[in-house]
Amino acid sequence: MRDAFANFLRKKLHEEAKMPEKLALTRRQILRSSLALPFAAVSTGAEAAAFDTAPIYQRLGVKTYINAYGTLTTLTGTLMLPQVKQAMEEASQNFVMIHDLQAKVGKRLAEITGAEGAFVTAGASASLCLATCAVTTGGDAEKMDQLPHLDGPIEMKSEIIIQKIHRGSYDHAFRMVGVRLVEVETEEELRAAIGPKTAALAMVLSHNSLGHKVSLEKMIAIAHEADLPLILDAAAELPPVENLTKFVGMGADLVAFSGGKNLRGPQCSGLLLGKKELIEAAYANSAPHNHFARIAKVGKEEIVGLLRAVEVYANERDHKAEREEHHAMLERVRQRLEGLRTVVTEYATNDDYSHSPRLTVQWDESALGLKLDDVMTELRDGEPGIIATNMERYRPAWKGVGIFPYNLQPGEEMIVADRLREILGRRA
After folding, report:
1. Beta-carbon neighbour count of residue 118 at 10 Å?
2. CA–CA distance from 264 to each of 55, 79, 82, 189, 306 (Å)?
3. pLDDT tens column, 279-300
């Protein structure tokens, strides 16, 4: 079969050499049809060489996009810094003991962040899972082996108190350990919910959970009054850079950050900071130990890569200059859209602890006969594809298309602006 297909391919390419105007299209068709066959079937001649040297996503038939949305996991998060990629390449060249590597990297991360302890996890959700393991098992091997069954034969604390507005799909990271999340809304309800089964209090800082009634400062104070730890989900709370040290400085006992967002580290990495005893218990639950959370394995490349990302973020990146350039990008988009009928732009920034500037682009849908979903689809399906934010789904009070600059590469903001001007200008 392979020989027959190779002969067919050579014959077709010979015939096409006489028809230059059809050559490129037909070759693409042949290559696409051959993807379902073993690669050896097309590994001959010029076409095989072209296949080998084409960009990886083109070879796989995977579309790439301009990311005007942000560090969304389903959009592969971030683009790693050159320093991070170099560190990961170096790390891949040797064998080491993971325990030794995590200990040395954890010590360095603790020095940078001011935490008592730290280690690299397989993502922010893995950090929250391991934090939950720590507050339920305390690092006891028998308890770890019993997870996620907290009610016997060894009975463990089985409840985590969380504000109702902080509930969401991400809290699977807590619940997978077997805990029950106890919802509260006010300080009075919070204090009344604390009991003998309470393992910890949890707080979520996120654009998805704004509007809480009990502040982080108060949550920490109440937790410590009851001799309980506070677990903080701060996955996307960088920038500002100060948050790397702020939350542990405030007294949060376990703090989870994502490595694959604005730290620009490996996408499948996370950072868990906190009190030394709890960090040790969390690490005891994680890979390469053979307990409940062994599934949360992290490799030497990610460990070293995230350390380098944190070092660069804390000490080497010019955050003021980056922020100024992000605002300049948005301003160039705003100016490009000036003069379009009914189109208005507005800056929007998250509240609380993070700073995420966005430009919203809004228009009169009735006057232009153009709905928001239609514009989002045109942006996504065009060439190049552009993924922006549907602001109404992001936060109901905001409207229109949201442009988030953190993942835009130089010049891409003008591609976004021109596409929006072309789409909206058709109806203006």
Report:
1. 29
2. 22, 6, 10, 39, 8
3. 999 999 999 999 999 999 999 9
Tell me, yes or no, whether 143 and 183 share the same domain: yes
| Domain CATH number, residue 411 | 3.90.1150.180
Domain of residue 153, residue span: 82-315
- Per-residue confidence at 208, pLDDT binned at 50, 70, 90? low
Q: Are 238 and 356 members of one domain?
A: no
Specify whether 266 is located in the same domain as 210: yes
Are 220 and 308 contained in the same domain?
Answer: yes
Per-residue pLDDT tens for 26-78?
A: 333 433 344 444 444 445 566 666 667 789 999 999 999 999 999 989 999 99
Q: Does the residue 71 lie in any domain?
A: no
- Alpha-carbon torsion, ordered 404, 407, 410, 413, to 10 deg: -30
Is 72 within a domain? no
CB of 81 closer than 8 Å to CB of 261? no
Listed residues 297, 315, 333: the one ending a domain: 315
How many structural domains comprise the chain? 3
Instruction: Report the predicted TM-score, pTM, of the whole model to 2 decimal places.
Output: 0.84
- Looking at the domain assignment, is residue 58 inside a domain? no
